[in-house]
Design brief:
CATH topology of chain A: MetI-like fold
Helix content of chain B: 25-40%
Structural class of chain B: alpha/beta
Radius of gyration of chain B: 26 Å
Shape of chain A: elongated
Number of strands of chain A: 0
Strand order of the largest sheet of chain B: 6-7-8-3-9-10-12-11
CATH class of chain A: Mainly Alpha
Number of helices of chain A: 13
Number of strands of chain B: 24
Number of domains of chain A: 1
Oligomer: heterodimer
Largest sheet of chain B: 8 strands, mixed
Distance between the termini of chain B: 44 Å
Chain lengths: 296, 684
């Protein structure tokens, strides 16, 4: 009997875990997937670089060191070399990481938020709401996105805010599609019927009963979208409709120097590698999260 | 234990130890298991879920997966150690020498391949015969499993067959290779009673013909009793009792075996006679096994010390047969009694008031196709149903899948609305009002308990949240008062108050269903609509939920509308019964009248199909041919005519049957006059 009550207490204690402990436990689960850990490692590396940029760089990102132009290749003075105007590539990468790691998460968060609203509405109300939302999403998904970005950004002008808004609008349909699928499945569960039986509103059911149970696929998809958004921002920079110069932007760095690829390949390949590594980081994290999700 | 050493056993477990290696450590599911199956013998393994039955089957097939391993002992097939077999040899054995039939036939059939080809593949691959020979053998096998028009069935794809037909195909696929051992893992659990009866009859017949040894796994003692020669009762990965089927059923010697038999509602028991006797507690975790008897913490006869310190040896119950039991106290157990105290529900007296009335209710929906919703066919899910649920009593609605019983429940609950006719709740019309539009008072009055314990509670929220929200919405109780009220409700359903902080994944199936009942009672519901609330639960847990529903009804004078496919449960719990077939009520009346002749021919067939946990029960089954007509078909006559074994003639197909009104409000819709039904039932 004494043993039983100890067990009971242990179970109760576990059940009373607070919010922080639950998330700590979920993060601990990440350790089971090496893939996710590698991905997270890459992402955290760039986050650290972005935060510590002033500390770990010697030169300001926009300073031209004309003395270095004699030899732009990586050296003791400039670890990753300089570009054709004598700007330190390491400095520009570090400060450029700040741009990417603020614009991409905000834009992705916007896309996830909008996608969740659209997906829940389409999956829950169905009927005409569903038809209109899915058709509009299909149109956006079937449009060549680069042209869409060029048209919109050429009209409203390239600024951080505009890029965020455009990316939000263009990426939201991907999230909406996933959320709609989950929602249509979950709305048939008995606990949703039970919520209807006690008279909950549609909004309450969507946000409190359905959404929490769709979080797994949404988190995985958000990670993937972060990677793609990183590419998008790079592409926009490359096309010259990214953030206005001279502030460092990885895509812009490639654009400025790709003509000199045959002479000084490091000038464009290094920022390319930076973009790729960050994208791979997000993708590995997404794959790892999915693995962990499937195992439970 | 002495084995009859006349020949090598087909299958022999020799002190096998099997574990799964999971996140939390080693789960030793089977600690030390020994048994054997002789040629041509059928052994039944029974027990609750989580006691290791399926692991035994998977271990024989060497299909334990990445996490599972045989960590000790040997598993011998025809004298050969399966652990020593190469992948090549295993492939030779699986399918050809050992065949397996699973619970879900669709998981064994390839959905994009005609069933004929799938059948022919077996002899073509294993025996290397040509297409013509394989075809002939497949056809012969289809005839043996009694599928009508085998030539035609060969051309079909799995989805074009009904569940019973699919399971017959799977059995045909298993037997076509003439295996030495046939493993059947809950082969009839997903099927309707009448289909189950037909499949079991088939297995029994084929057994004598094909002389395969059978390992038959089931949680249902009724099915095992009719198929097997010997039975093994498993608990905690051990065979706690094993012996010839008649000896075990006549003289169950382990408290667990007795518990399994005693918790079953049978056709002879009702709630006025005796309470059901559930097995207390739940199956223990294989992560931490007690040193002594695995069943000790749930056993009513446990003796601390003798039962709980050392492993329990197998003791012989009788000397002439090999009936053995793992219980040190088996000889001291008191004589067996099925009853747990006096009747659970007093006989009702006084004025009968109706709580819910269902009047000429119809619920049709359109089955739509394609982008523009064209070509819609009308499905008559509920077709002109008239019923009354009396206050403080139980109305049971019974029928096989697709008969419209769940749709009827949804209309009552307001999750669907009626096409025609009406439902009145306390005199107010609700049949055409969706739950969202019902007045708060009506919402509160009628609440629902759902079927699936795994989806009835939101996995993201605690038990306290589920009940608390219901209190807030239905009664307007919030804050500290809600907490106290939640704990009171948990107490009513016999759960500790601490469960309020638990999440659904920490609860067992039975506990989840208790929480669901507490949630439904939050607004002091007067009518509970329960849609198959116990069908997903183990028999031992089922009994305690049924007892709980009974108590609640007696204490609160609540009306229960109980939807079920299980006739024994209905017999036990109901005051009034409606038997549904294809959207129509074919028989309706007080429970005693419905379960006694005269019967509607469909009720008669249903009753005869219920598997009895008694090996000597008569097998006089009425087998229903074919499958029910499509719910979209327009049937001018009796809905049951196409399968009725007592069909009178053309009149059954053309004219709707008259409703005979008998004493006590008993109604039978049939063309056969009542006097003839009485006579037929007496003879049959």
């Amino acid at each position: 009997m004494a043993m039983q009550s100890t067990v009971e207490t242990a179970v109760t204690l576990r059940a009373r875990d607070g919010f922080v402990e639950r998330w700590a436990k979920r993060l601990a689960l990440l350790r089971e997937s090496p893939t996710a850990m590698v991905g997270l490692g890459i992402i955290l590396f760039w986050v650290a670089v972005a935060i510590l940029a002033p500390v770990i760089t010697v030169y300001p990102p926009n300073a031209n060191d004309y003395a270095a132009l004699a030899n732009t290749k990586p050296s003791a003075a400039h670890w990753l070399g300089t570009d054709h105007t004598g700007r330190d590539i390491w400095s520009r990468l570090a400060y450029g990481a700040r741009t990417v790691l603020t614009v991409a998460p905000i834009a992705t968060a916007g896309a996830v938020a909008l996608g969740i609203i659209l997906g829940l509405a389409a999956g829950y109300y169905r009927g005409w709401t569903d038809v209109i939302i899915t058709r509009v999403c299909d149109i956006i998904l079937s449009f060549p996105v680069i042209i869409l970005y060029m048209i919109i950004l050429a009209t409203v002008g390239a600024s951080a805010l505009n890029i965020i808004l455009v990316v939000t609008g263009v990426k939201a349909p991907y999230i909406a599609r996933i959320v709609r699928g989950c929602c249509m499945d979950i709305r048939e569960r008995e606990y949703v019927a039970a919520a209807r039986m006690r008279g909950e509103s549609g909004q309450f059911i969507m946000l409190m009963e359905i959404l929490p149970n769709a979080r797994g696929p949404i988190i995985v998809e958000a990670c993937l979208r972060m990677g793609y958004t990183t590419i998008t921002i790079g592409v926009l920079g490359f096309l010259g409709i990214g953030l206005p110069p001279p502030d460092p932007d990885w895509g812009g760095m490639v654009k400025d120097t790709y003509g000199m690829m045959s002479v000084w390949p490091h000038m464009s390949l290094i920022p390319c590698a930076a973009i790729s590594s960050l994208v791979i980081g997000f993708n590995l994290l997404a794959v790892g999260l999915r693995e962990i999700g499937l195992r439970d | 234990m002495t084995l009859p050493m006349t020949s090598t056993p087909i299958l022999q477990f020799d002190s096998a130890r099997i574990s799964y290696f999971i996140r939390a450590g080693e789960a030793n599911v089977i600690p030390d298991l020994s048994f054997s199956i002789a040629p041509n013998e059928a052994l039944g393994l029974v027990g609750e879920s989580g006691c290791g039955k399926s692991t035994v089957a998977l271990a024989v097939m060497q299909y334990l997966g990445r996490a599972g391993r045989v960590t000790g002992g040997r598993i011998l097939f025809e004298g050969k150690d399966l652990a020593q077999a190469t992948e090549q040899e295993l492939r030779q054995i699986r399918g050809r020498r050992i065949a397996m039939v699973y619970q879900d036939p669709m998981s064994s059939l390839n959905p994009v391949m005609q069933v004929g080809r799938q059948l022919m593949e077996v002899p073509m691959i294993h025996d290397g015969v040509g297409e013509e020979v394989a075809r002939a053998r497949a056809l012969a096998m289809l005839r043996e499993v009694k599928l009508p028009d085998p030539e035609q069935v060969m051309q079909r794809y799995p989805h074009q067959l009904s569940g019973g037909q699919q399971q017959r195909i799977v059995i045909a696929m298993a037997l076509i290779a003439q295996p030495a051992l046939l493993i059947m893992d809950e082969p009839t659990t997903g099927l309707d009673v009448t289909v189950e009866a037909a499949v079991l009859d088939l297995v029994r017949e084929l057994r004598t013909k094909h002389r395969s040894a059978i390992l038959f796994i089931s949680h249902n003692l009724g099915t095992v009793a009719h198929i097997c020669d010997r039975i093994g009762v498993m608990y905690g990965g051990e065979l706690v009792e094993e012996g010839p089927i008649r000896s075990v059923f006549a003289n169950p010697s382990h408290p667990y075996t007795r518990g399994l038999l005693d918790c079953l509602p049978t056709l002879g028991r009702d709630k006025h006679g005796s309470k059901l006797k559930p097995i207390q507690g739940q199956v223990g975790s294989p992560l931490k096994r007690p040193p002594g008897c695995q069943f000790a913490n749930r056993c009513a006869y446990v003796e601390i010390g003798r039962c709980t310190t050392a492993p329990i040896p197998s003791l012989e119950v009788t000397t002439d047969t090999d009936h053995v039991v793992k219980c040190v106290r088996w000889a001291e157990l008191p004589p067996r009694s099925r009853e747990a105290g006096e009747g659970a529900a007093p006989q009702m007296v006084g004025k009968i008031e109706s709580a819910v009335r269902v009047e000429h209710l119809r619920m049709y929906y359109k089955r739509t196709h394609g982008l523009f919703n064209t070509g819609g066919q009308i499905v008559r899910a509920v077709n002109d149903v008239e019923l009354v649920a009396d206050r403080g009593r139980t109305l049971a609605i019974v029928g096989e899948s697709g008969c419209g019983k769940s749709t009827l429940a949804k209309v009552l609950a307001g999750l669907e609305t009626a096409t025609d006719g009406d439902v009145t709740l306390s005199g107010q019309s609700v049949g055409h009002t969706a739950i969202e539009d019902r007045k708060p008072d009506l919402k509160r009055k009628l609440q629902m308990v759902f079927q699936n314990p795994d989806s009835t509670l939101n996995p993201s929220h605690t038990v306290g949240y589920a009940i608390g929200r219901a209190l807030k919405r239905l009664k307007g109780v919030g804050g500290a008062a809600a907490r106290a009220e939640t704990e009171r409700l948990l107490e009513i359903v016999k759960l500790p108050a601490a469960f309020a902080d638990h999440r659904p994944h920490q609860l067992s199936g039975g506990q989840k269903q208790r929480v669901a009942i507490a949630r439904a009672l939050a607004g002091d519901a007067e009518v509970l609509v329960a849609d198959e609330p116990v069908s997903a639960l183990d028999v031992s847990v089922q009994a305690s939920i049924i007892n709980l529903l009974n108590e609640l009804q007696t204490e609160r004078d609540a009306t229960l509308v109980f939807i079920s496919h299980n006739l024994a449960v209905v017999r036990y719990l109901a005051d009034r019964v409606a038997v549904m077939y294809l959207g129509k009520v074919v028989e309706y009346g007080p429970v005693d009248a419905v379960f006694k002749p005269p019967f509607h021919p469909y009720t008669e067939a249903l009753l005869s199909a219920v598997p009895q946990p008694d090996p000597d029960a008569s097998h006089a089954r009425i087998v229903l041919e074919g499958s029910p007509p499509s719910p979209t078909a327009e049937l001018p006559g009796c809905v049951f005519a196409s399968r009725c074994p007592r069909k009178v003639g053309e009149i059954c197909d053309t004219t709707p049957p008259p409703e005979h009104a008998l004493a006590g409000g008993h109604r039978i819709a049939c063309h056969i006059p009542v006097a003839d039904l009485v006579r037929l039932n007496a003879v049959g």
